[in-house]
UniProtKB/TrEMBL annotation:
Damage-control phosphatase ARMT1-like metal-binding domain segment(s): 20-419
Source organism (scientific name): Macaca fascicularis (Crab-eating macaque)
Catalytic activity: L-glutamyl-[protein] + S-adenosyl-L-methionine = [protein]-L-glutamate 5-O-methyl ester + S-adenosyl-L-homocysteine; beta-D-fructose 6-phosphate = dihydroxyacetone + D-glyceraldehyde 3-phosphate; beta-D-fructose 1-phosphate + H2O = D-fructose + phosphate
BP GO terms, sorted: DNA damage response; methylation
Function: Metal-dependent phosphatase that shows phosphatase activity against several substrates, including fructose-1-phosphate and fructose-6-phosphate. Its preference for fructose-1-phosphate, a strong glycating agent that causes DNA damage rather than a canonical yeast metabolite, suggests a damage-control function in hexose phosphate metabolism. Has also been shown to have O-methyltransferase activity that methylates glutamate residues of target proteins to form gamma-glutamyl methyl ester residues. Possibly methylates PCNA, suggesting it is involved in the DNA damage response.
Protein name as annotated: Sugar phosphate phosphatase
Lineage: Eukaryota, Metazoa, Chordata, Craniata, Vertebrata
Amino acid sequence: MAVVPASLSGQDVGSFAYLTIKDRIPQILTKVIDTLHRHKSEFFEKHGEEGVEAEKKAISLLSKLRNELQTDKPIIPLVEKFVDTDIWNQYLEYQQSLLNESDGKSRWFYSPWLFVECYMYRRIHEAIIQSPPIDYFDVFKESKEQNFCESQESVIALCTHLQQLIKTIEDLDENQLKDEFFKLLQISLWGNKCDLSLSGGESSSQKTDVLNSLEDLKPFILLNDMEHLWSLLSNCKKTREKASVTRVYIVLDNSGFELVTDLILANFLLSSELATEVHFYGKTIPWFVSDTTIHDFNWLIEQVKHGNHKWMSKCGADWEEFVKMGKWVYHDHIFWTLPHEYCAMPQVAPDLYAELQKAHLILFKGDLNYRKLTGDRKWEFSVPFHQALNGFHPAPLCTIRTLKAEIQVGLKPGQGEQLMASEPCWWTSGKYGIFQYDGPL
């Protein structure tokens, strides 16, 4: 195995990792504390004094966490027993074993950025589960739901487009079908801009009609492997026996508007017969502010179904039916909220890796998935994607992300350097996007 480069970390003053740990993460913690404060009366109504005491305890634990981070204290083991506690603490020991620090302790600014950012969200969850009877509370639920509610017009436009498309789908020739597939892939890409962890939890809803912006946005797609996806799935469709299946897996990112774009794409995959089953992978616990949980998935389908527009509610009713029929299947697995890069999956979560091997195609949405796929390391821009995956090849896969972290591989020689010279923030602003494929051509 070739030597892999060093991890991105907060050691590099001025880097995106540094600014995330210094500014964005404390800002998110402050918002979480504020959210708990605002629900104090609700906790009292539901649980009486016990609820108020629990809220105080959670806030105290989160304030302690914020102080540890801001003063670069050692990273401490998790204490509350949960399904993943031992794995987390083993990983913390492993990180400490790699350090040259005199006290042998992992610290916020000196440990890998991927690890400390995941650890922060896991500690938020620990503070909540240590505070019964409010241990069920999702501190990010409000902002996720607000993101969806503020994107209504865009959601209606997409649902209308999809329903009109489905009416004529059987009359489309192969090229027309391919064009529609590419259109919905791009909508799913630009939907990934709606990321609440990037905005520190502030509103990031979709208020413009993304459908009408696709042509203008095309120059900002730095890597475009959509043709590979079409050729793979259309080939599956042509060679499929009557009773056999084509499974597409979508490893989800954000709830709210982005999830709508993913479900629109998944609906099209079934209607066009490019897939016979779509499997969605979400998070078991609230994660990175806006990541999708089973509650978010079900809530959103319900909201769309009860939307005050006929095509919107038609989509919601169809989606509910797909779930009932097993054509859409939602899964979660604790691995998605561990700090490990994905090349460790065969060892850490062999059951999940075996599951992913059943896919004909896996779509990985968003930045966190990209960071975990590539190990969140200081790769050269032109390193091949296949190499950066470091042995993670369960099935043909494609990453669909708008760039919001200082990592990008697979570019043409000189392309990254050229962008860096003209736009220093090109890889963190969400302005550029990629469809990056790994698999047989």
